[in-house]
Amino acid sequence: MTAKRTFDVLGGLALLAVLSPALAAVALSVALGGTTPGGGILRRRTVAGLGGRPFTMLTFRTKSPLAALPLLLHVVAGRMSLVGPCPLAPAHRECTGEGRRRLSVRPGLTGPWQISGRSELPWEERELLDLHYVDHHWLGMDLTILARTLPAVRRRRAARFA
Questions:
Q1: pLDDT more than 90, % of the chain
Q2: Which of 7-21, 49-63, 74-88, 121-135 has the lowest mean pLDDT?
Q3: Rg of the chain over CA atoms, in angstroms?
Q4: Structural contact between residues 76 and 24, judged by C-beta atoms closer than 8 angstroms
Q5: Hey, which residues does 81 pair with through a beta bridge?
Q6: Which pTM does this prediction carry?
Q7: Is 110 helix (H, G, I), strand (E, B) or coil?
Q8: Residue 112: count of CB within 10 angstroms of its CB
C-alpha cells in the first residue's frame, strides 16, 4: 500500500468517525424532507475511476456541501482518493485521448479545481489543473490541498448568503 493510499484509508476512516453524526443528520433531514425528486436519500452517478473503471458514486440528495459526505465511503473502499482529479462520467471528453491520463489516479473528494474556484473556472482551466495534479502529485501537495479545501468551501458558502 502506498503512502497516499494509507493516508486515504486512515484519513477517510477518521473523517467518517468524526463526521458520522453529520452523516446521520443529513440522511435523516433528506429522508424527512420529502422534497427529493426521484426519491431516496442518495443520488447515484456513474463516474470513471482508476484506469477508467466505472463505479457508482453516491452523494446525498441535498445542495449543501454536506452532500459529499458519502464520498468518504468510496475513499475508504479505494474507488476514490481524498485528493485527486474531479470525478467525471466515463463518456466525458476529458476521459479520452490526451485527457485519459487523468484516469491514472483515483478521482478525488477534493482537488486543485475545488480550491481554485470550482464552478467559477472555465472548463479548460479545470482540465489543466487536473492534469497538472496527475503529473505532479505527491503527499505534500495533497496535504496543502486538504488544508485549503474547507476555507474555500466556506468562502463560497458565505458569498452565496451575502
A1: 62
A2: 121-135
A3: 16
A4: no
A5: 108
A6: 0.87
A7: strand
A8: 25
How far out from the chain centre does Cα 76 lie? 13
At 115, list the grid cell: 480550491
What is d(CA 104, CA 11) in angstroms, rounded to the nearest whole number? 21
At how many degrees (to 10) do helices 3-33 and 139-161 cross? Answer: 20
**The amino acid at 123:** W
DSSP secondary structure, 37-93, as one string: TT-SSEEEEEEE-GGG-EEEEEEESSSSGGGGTTHHHHHHHTSSEEE-SPP--TTSG
Cα–Cα dist 108/106, whole Å: 6
Helix, strand, coil abundance in the chain, percent, nearest 5: 60, 10, 25
Q: Match 484519513 to its residue by C-alpha cell.
A: 11
Q: Which residue do the cell numbers 491514472 mark?
A: 104
